[in-house]
Amino acid sequence: MRNLPFSLVLIAVMLLLDFYVFSVLKGVSQGAAQRTRSILFAVYWTLSAMALVALLFMPAINASGLPKGLRNALFVTMVGLFFAKLVAAIFFLIDDIRRGFQWVAGRLFFTNTEAEQIQSNGGISRSVFLSWLGLAAGGALFTSLMYGMGNKYAYRVHRVKLRFPNLPLAFRGLRVVQLSDIHSGSFTDHDAVARGVQKVLDLKPDLILFTGDLVNNTSDEMDRFLELFGRLKAPMGVFSTLGNHDYGDYVQWPTADAKRANLERLKSMHAQMGWRLLMNEHVLLERGTDRIAVLGIENWGAKARFPKYGKMSEAYPGTESVPFKILMSHDPSHWDAEVRPRYGDIDLTLAGHTHGMQFGVELPGFRWSPVQYVYKQWAGLYEEGAQKLYVNRGFGFLGYPGRVGILPEISLLEFE
């Protein structure tokens, strides 16, 4: 009930958008046959009404026994329609501002007779170009969001070759798979996830590193997938860290003890799967007489709202004389904020966290996502001097149950 006033405000905003967009739709469809317009208007208002009803009853829908996939589809349809109309409305507003300026100019620079003549001829008409452009932009956004729901398990292997002059000879040719942001609480298709796990195994990595966010909020989200991810094995081991979602910070717990118990259970799940969870510590990996260090810290985010549980002061000591170091740190903002300024001999940092916002464009020579306006490093490989950072796009998904342009990632890092 506490959310009811907010829901009512949102419904009012959606209704205003509905009527604003509909006024433009009526204008651009004037040349169509009456039957075509009637069908178009009926479809428009049916979808709008469904979105409003879904918003009003969303708490009841979430608490119902409806399959998660159906609930996700309803949520995406509702949100997609809202943002599609919002994007379209931006174009219409630009046009209305143009018309307003023209009206003011007409009053200032034309005689009353000329201004009345313009008004009698229908006033200052809308730009057909901007009207269609707005409708096309909104329609494209809605279509892409609906289409993206089919991509949430479309795992892509990103093969990245890395060269480090100080990498010990015995480790040249090392094949490392990085996974990040599994978010098991979002999964609805066990078989599809299993195909992703098999893709990892088919790569035959020497080492597997997981950089946090095993769950969305609570440890029980992992119950169905414990055996599945326990299949991940590698000759040199599987090592993991925690992400910001693993601590249960976004849940209202009945007691502090309940929250601590949830985290301890989650940590024990890493062990049950055969993963070595690194909590502000490091391990030394050996091949013959050569050694490298793998450091893993708890979540450390430079952005104000994310916690700083990680302690490099605990993970780093003991690695000073090791010639090559890999750091697992969930949040890529840690690299610029602490790693590069204070730990210049960390050769490679592995992170995740951003998901590439699960929305963007990736073409040869061009990448864009809204998340880049928040995170300087948000997907792929970055280099500063001798240090490198790789940001995994995420294995799972959170919030929006889909992927548009930024597909779920399995990183294969090949050391040369």
What report would you give on this structure?
The structure is a single chain. The longest helix is centred in the N-terminal third of the chain and has 42 residues, at 68-109. Helix 1 (4-28) packs across helix 4. The chain contains eleven helices and 14 strands. By secondary structure, it is of the alpha/beta class. It is 42% helix and 16% strand. The relative contact order is 0.12. The strands form three sheets. Strands 1-14-2-3-4-5 form a six-stranded mixed beta sheet, with helices on one face. It is elongated. It has helices spanning 4-28, 34-56, 58-63, 68-109, 112-120, 128-148, 190-202, 226-229, 256-272, 312-315, 333-342; strands spanning 156-162, 175-179, 207-210, 238-240, 276-277, 281-287, 290-296, 325-328, 348-351, 361-363, 366-368, 380-384, 387-391, 409-415. Mean pLDDT is 90; it is low at 118-124. It has two domains: 4-109 and 124-150, no CATH class; 156-415, Metallo-dependent phosphatases (Purple Acid Phosphatase, chain A, domain 2, 4-Layer Sandwich), CATH 3.60.21.
